[in-house]
Amino acid sequence: MGFKRLSPVMRMKGRRWCSLDARTAALATALYSMLTSVLLIVVYSGRIVYNASHASLMLNLYYGIQIAYVSILCSHLVLIALSGFLILGVYKEQPSYITPWILGNIAFLALEGVCCVYSNVLRDHINKHFDLFCKAELLFLVTRIILSIPALWGVLKFCRNLHNGFSYQDPETVPL
Known about the structure:
176 residues, two-stranded parallel ribbon, two-stranded antiparallel sheet, 73% helix, 5% strand, elongated, DUF4728, transmembrane
């Protein structure tokens, strides 16, 4: 009929012990996205409070740094909501719930990169050198970008499988 019950396997380097099915990969991606967003919200909220208490040290660049941090904060709040849609889309097997997470993740990752570099350049202008937080922030951003590539690939694989007619749910029983 129109539905295939299959558990397509997403292989990583061809080894059986680290293969996932695409649905599990999409759910793991949603969890990863939510946890990193919560972590970044906590970190950047602390930075906003710290900058507010040391506003006199930042001269006239205070508002630029704060706006960059607030935009990163808002993007991660939206990403948490989109991760909820991703989980809902995975359980209901509806690509229309998954697509906003894909687009939002790509867009907000780019926005975070721009805001992170912008705030680091402004802080570098004030401090006359890159401080430890600049280096840690850029290292975490690069790590997130690298980890987002297989995460996006897993979600896209799941979405592609849904478009091709695969189902991860048990078939309905038909009473005789």
